[in-house]
Design a protein that fits this description.
By secondary structure, the chain is α/β, with parallel strands linked by helices. The protein contains nine helices and 14 strands.
């Protein structure tokens, strides 16, 4: 009897993708975390090419994707299309791209805005120069290359909101609802080289919201809140993962995303919130399909067309202990059910309803090397 070669099916390569936070996971400021270099040995082949789709998701937004990719390339070769900054999802807000927009932030904000698709861009410095009497902050106190003073930005943004963009006019609290506001990066705290966390852009939003409320009596409203833990951010990250999977030649959908981060209130909360969204999407599709098969219709269900058929099945959250979270300083509840009744300080944004169960990670590991090893074990992939 002839012996025919036996062809065993290879491990399905399209089963998972990785979302890496950067600060506190891969680096502290500009210093790489030692475990980061070690973890990438499992992610690339002997030619230095990625084995699995990888996207680096950060709430930082003070540079271009190219700059962040070059910074990360001291660890491993990273391309700009693998990098997602807090403002990256603004590319899909095309309804605002032809409008005149005021941009506030750090870094090359005008260049960033144009790169995202905005055509008519005004910066805080442009407003300050055009209306010098509006800004009474002493700029001589600001050292060169020091982060921008919040006073100027807070003052001029309030001016724009209360004059509907006509800065020659007087304030009017009747300008409500105000012109659209899109905010990127809600992080209250983040981890750099300092031993303790530093104030993030979320602190600026807290100041802006409270100033607006104090002056007008109204709540500041956002057209969109972008950056972790927003579902918008994870939807966009998943789009980048699919693009990376296509470059690897994978032909079937990514089934599971693993989001690795150091901040329970941003990385973990966001990944779990996105997982909840994925489960709700599956449930809605199942309900619509069941009703359709039965000849009936569910008026409360969204159309199946509102949910892609190739969405991931789940998003698992992995918490590392090299950044904002430390086992020595914080204790996660052993029983997620207990978190509902316990008192917690919520560092998340005002507009996000606090659900303590969403701060509970799927897994807790020491560092990013252990995180990658855990994922490979979960997926049955060999370790180097």
């Amino acid at each position: 009897m002839p012996l025919w070669p036996i062809c065993l099916p290879l491990q399905d390569p399209s089963s998972f993708g990785l979302l890496f936070d950067i600060d506190g996971v891969l680096v502290r400021g500009r210093t790489p975390i030692p475990a980061a270099k070690q973890c990438f040995r499992n992610l690339v082949d002997r030619h230095g090419k990625y084995k699995v789709p990888v996207v680096f998701v950060t709430n930082a937004g003070n540079c271009m994707r190219q700059t962040k990719a070059e910074h990360l390339s001291q660890l491993l070769e990273v391309s700009p299309d693998q990098v997602m900054l807090s403002h990256s999802p603004l590319r899909i807000f095309t309804q605002f791209h032809k409008k005149c927009v005021l941009v506030s932030g750090q870094g090359p904000v005008e260049e960033v805005a144009h790169n995202l698709g905005f055509e008519d861009v005004v910066t805080i410095d442009m407003v300050r120069e055009a209306y010098p009497v509006l800004d009474v902050v002493d700029h001589n106190r600001r050292p060169k290359d020091f982060p921008i003073r919040w006073e100027t930005n807070l003052q001029l943004i309030i001016d724009v909101l209360l004059t509907n963009g006509n800065l020659g006019n007087t304030w009017s609290s009747t300008q409500y609802p105000h012109i659209p506001v899109l905010a990127c990066n809600m992080d209250l705290l983040w981890m750099a080289e300092a031993k303790n966390p530093r104030f993030g852009h979320g602190m600026f939003l807290v100041c802006l919201e409270n100033l607006y409320k104090k002056v007008t009596g109204y709540d500041l409203k956002y057209e969109a809140l972008i950056g972790k833990p927003s579902v918008v951010t994870y939807n966009y990250a998943e789009l980048l993962i699919r693009q990376q999977a296509e470059k690897l030649g994978w032909n079937t959908p990514v089934k599971t995303l693993y989001a690795i981060g150091d901040n329970p209130m941003a990385d973990i909360y966001g990944a779990n919130l996105y997982n909840r969204y994925l489960q709700a999407s599956k449930h809605t599709k199942a309900k619509v399909q069941a009703k359709s098969c039965g000849g009936g219709a569910d008026p409360t269900a969204q159309s199946v067309d509102d949910h892609r058929e190739d969405l991931p099945e789940a998003c698992s959250s992995i918490l590392v202990c090299t950044g904002v979270y430390s086992r020595d300083q914080q204790e996660l509840p052993s029983d997620p059910a207990q978190t509902v009744t316990e008192q917690h300080i919520f560092h998340g944004h005002r507009d996000f309803r606090f659900d303590p169960t969403l701060t509970q990670p799927s897994f807790v590991v020491q560092d990013v090397k252990e995180a990658v090893e855990l994922v490979f074990q979960q997926e049955g992939w060999p370790l180097e």
